[in-house]
Prior knowledge:
- The chain contains seven helices and no strands.
- The chain is mainly α.
- α1 runs parallel beside α5, α3 packs antiparallel against α6 and α4 runs antiparallel to α5.
- The longest helix is centred in the first third of the chain and has 51 residues.
- The radius of gyration is 34 Å and the shape is rod-shaped.
Amino acid sequence: MSGLPWxxxxxVSGQLSAKPLLSQxxxxxxxxxxxxxxxxxxxDLEENTKKLYKEVKKYEECLTALQKQEEKVASDLSNxxxxxxxxxxRKLGEQYSSVVYQMGHATDDLVQLSQKTVVDPMKKLTxxxxxxxxxxKRRDLAMxxxxxCQLKYEKMLKLEKTGNNIVxxxxxxRSYLMAKDDFDKANRLLLLxxxxxxxxxxxxxxxxxxxxxRSQVDYFGESTRLFTHLVSACPDKSSLVTDEEYNKDLEKKxxxxxxxxxxxx
Length: 265
């Protein structure tokens, strides 16, 4: 069997913070190791889920901040003296403000959709990890009880075979077998369901990420449509120039500005 994908020096900060205890012979070494591997995989899943949750929350914040900044730019342009004194620039500023306003609705939609399609599902998944840790703890308590009963039973076997001791030994044996059965059930349940929980992660994540991607396609598609329409509506669209021509013209105008005495060196 391959080595565990686990770093003992790695700081554990999630709900899955205590690995299952070794059974000390109550079950096979292979079962102990299989359970530990399944648990460590879920620790990684929990960590990655939390990272995705935080990154999408940051993504939402960035979208909102970008929209607010663009609204400020549109407002500053519309209220600037340059735009107010030039009819052509004033109309262009108004059209740009209209596009930014419409993109505000698209941004709100994308933020809400990312919340519903990724953030909320990740939060729900994260809430499952304390339940898993609780099941592990119950398994460990059952194991400790079985070990305690086993130790008591083994001590009774060493006593003199008197009538009273035989009765007590038989009681200790029954207690041990019952405790061992409780532990076996809890251990088998974890061995069965922890890998199943991990294996279903793809089926859980994929619809969320696909929905987010579709939302982004709608958002950027709307952005492209609005700004393409804005460009096509420009009155000077027939005079659109290449980047090289634009840079040359810009440099020419800057040279004229620098030649003025108020900015001359």
